[in-house]
Design a protein that fits this description.
mainly alpha, Hydantoin permease, 18 helices, binds tryptophan
Length: about 450
């Protein structure tokens, strides 16, 4: 419950906030595009297996570290360290996560800014301002600057209000709104010509591809990115959960929501691509692979919306608003990582810390925007391909090798008395000790 450092007021509050962090552009954009470029349903199957068998155990490790420590990532990890060497190691891991969250926000804010601009474009068209509409979707420094600033300001606004009044309240408002938009869009797209062909590509697995190393590794990377692992964020969210909650089931519920929303997003995006094809939009690249990533979201889908006529304007608003909301519930958690660190370790006032750190990260985004070609991809690679897996792996190492087993069991038992007799406690400790670190190390080495 809410103590002096704040906390989620209810179980639902945590679920919405953690699912809000997890469900983001990674689910609605990343997952469907990865699915499209990795052969459809085979990727989906592998993703489901890995999300539950590897990402969920690693996620449990992070939220348990937080609830045990009742503090930001660095302090929480240091609480379970026994000597000066471990304490230094704890600092490196915790602070590494905090930096990683900040770096992710610096590029995520730019992308989310594009989403806001694309939401505004059909509105500009509706009021008959075609020049404004063109400006909104053309890549320019000014546009990027304005919309990133707008998005980061929203993030700062929510985080400055604290855990209950900011994160929890807004996650509870925005998540249902996002889900409603998603369901309406799916319902509409599935009625259009070509959608059933897309469904077939999405849901009918080509089993021969399922063990392709590239597919497995992309699926694992996607699952870790999607659960926001390795960024200190789930540690801090874990620290706001009441000691009377059952962590095993809370963690499972958040994972289930995250995976389900990724799956639903696939039901929207992949059929939409085939509908676009039926309308004459090119959806395959020269080498025969499906167009994905930025071309998909900023070229294929907008051409589809355009081909729908008047109703397409509203579909476009709905779609890009969905993306913006999903990004916002994730970005607030990215800012909470560094802010909670500054508040608890350096006694900064929350509002001040949110503004200073938010502006600092925005200034870094401005540097990225000014050197877009060289920096944008680099920051994404550094933070998501290197930073996240390394920190996530080290968190598992902490739980598996440094945290005393008795103390760990006591923490899980709090809110779940009978956990010792169940399946979770038989399997999970070995998982965090051996299986997760090894699997993450494999993904990491592959990305080199
Ligand atoms: N999970 C988010 C998504 O799917 C992205 C993400 C990665 C993230 N790392 C994070 C969000 C850290 C918050 C904090 O889009």
């Amino acid at each position: 419950m809410a103590g002096s450092r704040g906390g989620f007021s209810s179980r639902l509050g945590f679920i919405m906030a953690a699912a809000g962090s997890a469900v983001g552009l990674g689910n609605i954009w990343g997952f469907p595009t990865q699915t499209a470029s990795n052969g459809g349903a085979a990727f989906v199957l592998m993703y489901l297996v890995l999300a539950f068998c590897l990402a969920y155990p690693a996620f449990m490790a992070e939220i348990l570290i937080g609830r045990y420590g009742q503090a930001n990532a660095v302090t929480a990890l240091q609480k379970m360290s026994k000597n000066i060497f471990q304490k230094r190691f704890a600092f490196v891991v915790g602070f590494g996560g905090v930096i990683c969250a900040g770096l992710i926000l610096s590029f995520y804010g730019i992308v989310a800014g594009w989403m806001i601009a694309h939401t505004a474009e059909p509105v500009a068209k509706l009021i008959g301002s075609d020049d404004a509409a063109n400006w909104l979707v053309a890549f320019s420094f000014e546009r990027n600057l304005i919309f990133t600033a707008l998005f980061v300001s929203l993030t700062i606004f929510i985080i400055s209000r604290g855990v209950e009044e900011g994160i929890e309240k807004w996650s509870k408002r925005l998540m249902p709104l996002m889900l409603t938009l998603l369901l309406i869009l799916i319902g509409y797209v599935l009625t259009l010509d070509g959608a059933s062909e897309g469904l077939e590509a999405y849901l009918n697995p080509d089993f021969s591809r399922i063990f392709e190393p590239d597919l497995v590794l992309s699926a694992l990377g996607q699952a870790f990115f999607s659960l926001s692992l390795g960024t200190s964020v789930m540690i801090i969210y874990g620290s706001y959960i009441s000691k009377s909650e059952n962590m095993v089931s809370l963690g499972a519920q958040v994972t289930l929501i995250d995976v389900s929303i990724a799956f639903l997003a696939g039901l929207l995006i992949i059929p939409a691509m085939y509908v676009a094809q039926a309308q004459g939009v090119e959806i395959f690249a020269a080498d025969g692979s499906l167009l994905s990533e930025d071309t998909l979201v900023f070229t294929v889908l907008p051409s589809l919306f355009e081909s729908m006529g008047g109703v397409g304007l509203f579909v476009a608003i709905g779609f890009f608003a969905l993306m913006t909301i999903a990004a916002l519930t994730s970005s607030i958690s990215m800012l909470e990582g560094p802010v909670s660190y500054a508040v608890e370790r350096h006694n900064m006032e929350r509002k001040k810390a949110s503004i200073f750190i938010g502006i600092g990260i925005f200034l870094f985004s401005v540097i990225i925007m000014s050197n877009f070609e060289s920096l944008f991809g680099l920051v994404i690679t550094l933070s998501t391909k290197y930073g996240q897996p390394i920190v996530a792996m080290l968190c598992c190492v902490f739980v598996g090798w440094i945290w005393q087993r008795n103390s760990l069991l006591e923490e899980i038992k709090s809110g779940n008395e009978s956990v010792e007799d169940g399946f979770f406690w038989k399997i999970w400790p070995v998982y965090t000790k051996v299986v997760c670190p090894t699997a993450i190390a494999m993904v990491f080495l592959h990305s080199l």
